[in-house]
Structures are given as structure tokens and as C-alpha cells.
Design brief:
Blueprint lengths: L2 H30 L18 H7 L4 H32 L5 H14 L6 H11 L5 H25 L3 H9 L4 H12 L1 H16 L3 H6 L8 H4 L12 H26 L3 E2 L2 E2 L1
Antiparallel strand pairs: 1-2
Helix pairs in contact: 2-12, 3-6, 3-9, 4-6, 6-9, 7-8, 9-12
């Protein structure tokens, strides 16, 4: 290896190291700050204490907000996974005129018309349906926003499922739903796990939808409760914010580790590599 190549490689690995440290600093702060008596915005060795967790436990809405986040995000995850699986399988197997155009149009519109831009008609729709201050209404809105992308992603998994397996099942008298349940879905399970985690993460981090549609503090999810840890002047309560952020992140990290251990997130179409 020439000296110039060695220098280039050293510079490359040095740049990668700096970028890794840059992105690791916020995560390091998230881990250390909750255990510091006086956390600041800088990363430092904490003056160890558990008082921040005790203070968080005194908040009457802390635990209920996590429960609400689980209910809202879990509902959205189940709906997105189930509906996208049915729609993706239908679009994969049925020849619909303009099918690909419909998929790309849905994906494009879902990217352009975001929740912020559509919040007024969404609020009016939820009001007409009587779903204001209802957690199920928030789950439905989040499901509608995530479905187009979920169908687009999951269709590739359905396309890669060998049709010969389905034909063999039909020979033995299986109905279309039985084929989907017992043949297609087990093969596309890694894709379903990917969609489930993706949908949960997006719903878990939502703020605007729940903030506008929910009124009762008892129904407030964790993402909205975080907003209350600021004073009227905009001053952040860093001990509570850092502690609640760590607790808030644990369920999503645990789900990711479970799915990663189960499936590894190494897929080629619908067949696990």
C-alpha cells in the first residue's frame, strides 16, 4: 500500500470516528444526565443521584402518559401492520390498472400533505366523528398517515413470496384468507416486523396529533407531557426532561432489540437471509 493510500485511509477512519462521536454525544447525555444532581446541556461525569427519578415519580401524569403512549402507539402499530398486509397482498397478486401509479401517488401525497398541513381538516373530521379527546381517534389519524408508506414497503415482501407455495395450498383446498394466513404471512414475517417497529416508532414520537386532539390530561401521551416540563418563560426543567426522556426511550429500544434479535433486520425481499 502506497503512503498516499495510507494517509487517505487514516483520514477516512479519523473522519468516521469524529462523526461517530458527534452522533454519540446526545445519546451519552441521555444516559448520564438523569443520574446527575445538577444536569446541564454538556456531557459530564454525573454527581450520582436517584432523586430525579423520585421527583419524576411525584408527577401525577408521568406513568399514565406512558400507558397512553403504549395504547395509542400499539393501536396504530396493529392497524398499520394488519391493513398494510392485506392491501400489499392484494396489490401484489391482483392486476389492477394503474396499480404502480396508485402506489407512487399515495406515497407522494403522504409525503407532501403532512400532518401539520392537514391538521385543520383532520380536526374537523374527528369532531364530526365524535373522536375529539379520544385516544382511538389519535391512533386512527396516525394509521392513516403511515399506511401509504407501509403498503409501499410491504408490497416488495409480498412480491418476493413464491407463488408456487400459494398454488400448492390452493390444490389442497385452502381459501384465499387461509393462503394469506398460513403461507404468505409466515414468509413475510420479517417484513411485518419491520413495518410494526417502524409504525410504533413514528406513533411513539408523535406530538402534534395528540396535542391537538386530546384535552384530558389523563389521556395525554408521553410525547405531549414532555412539553409541560418547561416553564411559562420557556426555561427547561433539565432534571425532569432528561429523566423522563430516558424512561420514554426504553420501550422503543427494548422492542428494537427484541425484533433485531429475532429477525436481525437482514432481509432480501420477503425471505430472510
Amino acid at each position: 500500500m502506497t503512503p498516499a493510500a495510507v494517509v487517505r485511509r487514516i483520514l477516512f477512519y479519523g473522519l468516521i470516528t469524529l462523526l461517530s462521536l458527534f452522533f454519540a454525544l446526545p445519546l451519552l447525555w441521555l444516559v448520564l444526565a438523569p443520574f446527575d444532581k445538577t444536569p446541564t446541556l454538556t456531557v459530564k461525569i454525573p454527581d450520582f443521584t436517584l432523586d430525579n427519578f423520585a421527583e419524576l415519580g411525584k408527577n401525577p401524569y408521568a406513568l399514565s402518559s406512558l400507558k397512553n403512549s403504549i395504547l395509542i402507539s400499539g393501536g396504530a402499530m396493529l392497524l398499520v401492520t394488519a391493513l398494510s398486509a392485506l392491501a400489499a397482498y392484494a396489490l401484489s397478486r391482483v392486476r389492477v390498472p394503474g396499480r404502480d401509479l396508485i402506489l407512487y401517488a399515495l406515497l407522494l401525497l403522504s409525503s407532501i400533505v403532512t400532518g401539520t398541513a392537514a391538521m385543520v381538516p383532520i380536526f374537523l373530521l374527528m369532531f364530526q366523528l365524535g373522536l375529539i379527546d379520544d385516544r382511538s381517534g389519535v391512533s386512527l389519524v396516525l394509521t392513516g398517515g403511515l399506511l401509504p408508506a407501509a403498503i409501499f414497503i410491504l408490497k416488495d415482501f409480498m412480491d418476493s413470496t413464491p407463488k408456487s407455495y400459494e398454488e400448492s395450498a390452493r390444490v389442497f383446498g385452502a381459501s384465499p384468507l387461509q393462503v394469506l394466513r398460513h403461507v404468505v404471512l409466515p414468509i413475510a414475517r420479517p417484513g411485518l416486523a419491520t413495518i410494526a417497529v417502524w409504525a410504533l416508532v413514528n406513533a411513539w414520537g408523535d406530538f402534534l396529533t395528540a396535542y391537538i386532539l386530546l384535552r384530558d390530561p389523563e389521556k395525554t401521551p408521553a410525547g405531549v407531557l414532555m412539553y409541560t416540563f418547561y416553564t411559562e418563560g420557556g426555561q427547561a426543567n433539565l432534571p425532569l426532561i432528561s429523566t423522563f426522556s430516558l424512561v420514554y426511550a426504553i420501550p422503543v429500544i427494548a422492542l428494537y432489540l427484541f425484533v433485531n434479535r429475532r429477525y436481525g433486520f437482514r432481509f432480501h425481499g420477503g425471505i430472510k437471509s
